[in-house]
């Protein structure tokens, strides 16, 4: 039957050589290649996992950054509002102080005018009294009786007191 299949010793030698070559290649070449492929696959899987973790961390950092940026904007807005409020209060205080100073100056001016008015009235009264005394002196020189003289003096003093000054 082997002869019918045309199988001889050369065939078996080639078969044995082939099997020996396959066993040798498996031991020397295929196992290290398969191990290198497995190592490479493991390394790629590890790098993919690390990249996914890095992406998650980057997303978290981006969210944190966004929160910090929002917080910084809010703080800047609050600082700006506080500065504006302080400026408005300062402006109000300055205006109030200026108004108070103007009112004080006005009151001082009014008081000074009143003093000057009283002084002028006093001067007019003194002048009128002196004028009355002079008139009285002249009248006395003409020998007017005492009752007439007193009457004239009272009348002169009343007129001086009724002056519009």
Automatic annotation (TrEMBL):
InterPro entries with a match to the protein in the record: ATP_synth_B-like_membr_sf (IPR028987), ATP_synth_b/b'su_bac/chlpt (IPR002146), ATP_synth_F0_bsu_bac (IPR005864), ATP_synthase_B_chain (IPR050059)
Give the CDD domains listed for this entry.
Answer: ATP-synt_Fo_b
Q: How does it sit in the membrane?
A: Single-pass membrane protein
* Superkingdom classification of source: Bacteria
Going by the UniProt record, its keywords in alphabetical order are: ATP synthesis, Cell membrane, CF(0), Coiled coil, Hydrogen ion transport, Ion transport, Membrane, Transmembrane, Transmembrane helix, Transport
Q: One Pfam family this chain carries? A: ATP-synt_B
Q: What does this protein do?
A: Component of the F(0) channel, it forms part of the peripheral stalk, linking F(1) to F(0). F(1)F(0) ATP synthase produces ATP from ADP in the presence of a proton or sodium gradient. F-type ATPases consist of two structural domains, F(1) containing the extramembraneous catalytic core and F(0) containing the membrane proton channel, linked together by a central stalk and a peripheral stalk. During catalysis, ATP synthesis in the catalytic domain of F(1) is coupled via a rotary mechanism of the central stalk subunits to proton translocation.
| The protein, known as | ATP synthase subunit b
């Amino acid at each position: 039957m082997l002869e019918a299949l045309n199988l001889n010793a050369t065939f078996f030698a080639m078969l044995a050589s082939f099997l020996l070559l396959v066993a040798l290649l498996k031991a020397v070449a295929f196992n290290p290649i398969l191990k290198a492929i497995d190592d490479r696959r493991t390394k790629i899987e590890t790098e993919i996992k690390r990249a996914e973790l890095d992406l998650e961390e980057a997303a978290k950092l981006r969210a944190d950054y966004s929160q910090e940026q929002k917080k910084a904007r809010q703080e800047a807005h609050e600082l700006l509002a506080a500065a504006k409020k302080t400026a408005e209060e300062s402006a109000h205080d300055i205006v109030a102080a200026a108004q108070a100073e103007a009112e004080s100056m006005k009151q001082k001016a009014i008081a000074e005018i009143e003093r000057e008015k009283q002084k002028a009235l006093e001067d007019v009264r003194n002048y009128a009294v002196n004028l009355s005394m002079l008139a009285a002196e002249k009248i006395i020189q003409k020998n007017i009786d005492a009752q007439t003289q007193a009457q004239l003096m009272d009348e002169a003093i009343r007129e001086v007191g009724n002056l519009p000054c």
